[in-house]
Amino acid sequence: MADLSINLAGIRSPNPFWLASAPPTNTGYQVQRAFEAGWGGAVWKTLGEPIINTSSRFAAVHFGGQRVAGFNNIELISDRPLEVNLREIAETKKRFPDRAVVASLMVEPTREKWHEIVKKVEAVGVDGLELNFGCPHGMAERGMGAASGQQPDLVELQTMWVKEVATTPVIVKLTPNITDITATARAAVRGGADAIS
Predict the structure, then answer these.
(1) Cα–Cα distance, 85 to 45 (Å, whole number)
(2) Is 42 annotated in the active site?
(3) Structure pTM?
(4) DSSP summary character for residue 140
(5) Catalytic residue among 19, 135, 154, 193
(6) Strand partners, 69
């Protein structure tokens, strides 16, 4: 059989097929099932201060005589407590030590918050970190996700804060919602990113 193993910025896995940070990576059960099916890695659903869904995200409008219904941005960061996610990450790495587990992170933009969450997730054995500067959902008022990712100076600064304490590779996930993504990509590199997504 062909060797499909990879090394992405120091993160090794038996193959290049990884699950992205999304609903299928929201629990240890889901990630472990994926690994049993042969997936080489997973980026754990974005961790941070849990989101509490307090209102319906379902909406309907009348347009052109038709009723149009849809869901408003239902896929936020994990709404599960950080401690639960950390326990499940540790269990998953224990069961599948050869599979890549990357923690996707989003916190309020302070050095202290970044240092705190990086230390916690690395303590349970993640293979790398993804800084989520790409997602536009719900926290622009707190300066998180794409609100940071659209500002090169913030991408650079927050990447530097993470690199001050990180012992695993750091992947910066950029937002496409910007006129020139090369500006934020260069900022991530200046901040010390090991890879860009």
Answers:
(1) 9
(2) no
(3) 0.87
(4) G
(5) 135
(6) 60
